[in-house]
Amino acid sequence: MLWKHLRNKQLDGYRFRQQHGFGPYVLGFYCPSIRLCIELDGSVHDSAEQQQKDEERTEFLRQNRINVLRLRNEEVEEDVEGALEKIRRFIKGLEGASHPLAKVSGSDPQPPNLGGSETPQGFIFDYGGTLDTGGNHWGKVLWHAYERQRVPVSEQQFRDAYVHGERTLGRNPIIQPSFTFRQTLAEKLRLQLEYLHTVCDCPTETYASALLDDVYTQTQEHTRHSIEVLRQLKAQGKPMVLVSNFYGNVGVVLREFGFDGLFDSIVESAVVGVRKPDPRIFQLGVDALGLQPQEVVVVGDSIDKDIAPAHAIGCQTVWYEGEPWDASAAVDRTVPDLIINDLEQLL
Known about the structure:
Elements: H1 2-6, E1 17-22, E2 25-31, E3 36-41, H2 48-63, E4 67-72, H3 73-78, H4 80-96, E5 122-125, H5 138-148, H6 155-171, H7 181-199, H8 208-235, E6 240-244, H9 250-257, E7 265-268, H10 269-272, H11 280-289, E8 296-300, H12 303-312, E9 316-320, E10 338-340
Parallel strand pairs: 3-4, 5-6, 5-8, 6-7, 8-9, 9-10
Antiparallel strand pairs: 1-2, 2-3
Helix pairs in contact: 6-7, 7-8
């Protein structure tokens, strides 16, 4: 019943997602622009055991700067308008709050104020970790899938397997130019699980299919949202170029998810022979746009690989902030011109 009133921006223009995966959890209703999770609690949540689990879940979300509002099922069933007003009051409280979770953009987004003297004339987008994960590091996306599927390994064991897999792919031409993302993901998982099988006394390979379906479904959700935003930018007459460290198959992956026709040009590391964080790869993107660097906005999820090198050649920069690989690592938040947590904030 609540989704009927939240979908399609019906609540004051805020865009909510239903059953949104975040970390090891699936959030009932989630609004990315204000990092708000709404949960509906039934009688099962009255037990002490479940309340403890709910507290752990809420603490995890708060640590990741997500605000949580819990409503009782009966609140919605008996007085849905009252429940909606409660949500509005909670959002209003976020707008005026001073705590670190408060980060609210209005319901009618304005063009991003990048602080530069030049009006943006074109965009350069990163792909992996930006358009396909909602700004979240791919390592964390995969680890949370391992958690959801209850793969019996520790996070450190997974991290070692992830690094092993990425290095193996970097040294060997395993990913072919014809590979879809699903095929690419299957190879990544295969390498990780084979490594884990050697260090764990468990049949990790039996989880391959469930992990593949889990992560692929999440990726479809993120790419659908990215496409919606990119289409609106395209309709505004903004030319866009993709600049990505990839395996030579990014064109196939873009078609797989429906990005066809959105980018005026694609600059892929495996094709041009230059990899991020080398600023030259972004200069190739600027040249493809036919603009000056100061007229171009670069959007990416990595300060080191996207924002800093693009900034070095004079581009305006937008950091798409998500869950990092290393939460303890120091980040210079003064480098990007703008920080967002939803691509929609570019509109």
